[in-house]
Amino acid sequence: MNTVKKTREIANTLEKGKVRYHLYKDLINRYSEAMKGGFFLEAITLMESLISDRLESALIYYGVCTPDEVFKPLGENLKRLDSLGIISDELYDEINHWKKSRNTALHEMAKISVGERPTFIARYENQKPIAEQGYAIFKKIKNELR
Predict the structure, then answer these.
(1) Which residues contact 45 (CB under 8 A, 6 or more apart)?
(2) Per-residue pLDDT tens digits for 121-139
(3) Of 129, 42, 56, 66, which is closest to residue 86 (Cα–Cα)?
(4) Which residue among 5, 54, 85, 137 is least enclosed by CB atoms within 10 Å?
(5) DSSP states of 1-35 as a string?
(6) For the residues of 78-106, what is the DSSP string, one character each?
(7) pLDDT band at 48; cut points 50, 70, 90
(8) Domain boundaries of the chain, sorted by first residue
């Protein structure tokens, strides 16, 4: 497999800023459509991407890493922020808790614990609050990192 190392585009021009703005706008619109349509796993995935992007932006802005050292999983980006004081401890804990909920939602839909008798519908409906919390976290990150 040919892997090309990715480098994050920095929105340091009006043109680049507009590209990011429109992409975010489309992602948030798609999140809203996914929520209305009951596609909660898609909504969770979209929020994870937005949250990770904001954290990566902060890591670069504060000099923790360079644009070619990002495109890492959410947990790794969160660990990099842990001791820097860039985000509040409360928000850090909230993101970390959400990350665990997201992992369960995305990776354990088909898994059954001993004695558990889940239905797909019941399990799927449990994903809605995780998607909603992801959006709330995304907004908090935007506000704290302004």
Answers:
(1) 106
(2) 888 889 999 999 999 999 9
(3) 56
(4) 5
(5) ---PPP-PPP--SHHHHHHHHHHHHHHHHHHHHHH
(6) HHHHTTT-SS-HHHHHHHHHHHHHHHHHH
(7) very high
(8) 14-144
